[in-house]
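I hope you will forgive my troubling you with a question about protein structure. Here, with my thanks, is the record as I have it:
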Amino acid sequence: MGSSVLQVAIGAEAWPVAERYRLERSEPDAVGRSDLRIVVDGDPVRSWVPSDESNLFEIIEPLADTDDAGIASWVEQRGLLGVNRRSLLDGESIREIRDATHHLLDCRRLFEAVRAGSPPNRLLNLALKVRLQSTGIPALVRAEHIAVSSGLALNQLDEPDRKGVSAELMALEALGAGLLQRMRDVAWIAPRVRSTQRSVQLELSLIGTGPLGAAYVQLSQAVTSLVLNRKLNSIERVVWRSPRPCEKCRTEFFPQRVEQRWCSARCRSAGNKSKQRKVGR
């Protein structure tokens, strides 16, 4: 049954919802834990396009804290979350869905913190959490590692970083790595050839991407926009601070304000007097 649903997904932006899903109890792992797995058990009956949803994060967010029955009900309405590229064939466990949702929401919290200019302590705490989730460290171990790593990182804030690496830059680096890793896991990438009279171009397109992948794409686009805006603002600051010639004596100087036209108070006074004489004529 999963193969027919997969065929619907590949080659289209729509994400299929199957007629039925069944719950299977997985075999106990090394520490004796078992989990429920949601598996496709019917042909696709409808579909939806997650990337078209402006409130996609709000649609996915309930999966982080709801119970097993709530997650199963969500899947019946929206289809599987798409935690990896084999979800439509092998199904998804309740734990996988919950962990993937937590990672997505943590990435979004980190992005919002960077955009809001949050204090370095908060940025580093969120960045470390995203970094550890991306490395696959078991959930029970993460809290201890985060506490230890955060303590070390926050203690280092007392001394200026010799390389000039800011907390914001570290946060963006962790966010970018987390998004890239998850998009590799969940996205189907299709090559498409576009030919013109002068050239042939190879384009890579995301297709058959589930709700999770679409949310990561939206977040990646927001991060890219934020970084570009920050870079443009930095370039603007650098441009107006570049040396310019004084309008009176023509000596080059480094301005302290965007609209500064003279290199000194003397030249400013002389320039204003010249302007008044021209107006009086």
About this structure: The first helix runs from residue 2 to 9. DSSP finds ten helices and nine strands in the chain. Strands lie at 15-18, 21-25, 36-40, 44-48, 92-93, 188-195, 200-207, 244-245, 252-253. Confidence is low (pLDDT under 50) at residues 2-11, 137-164.
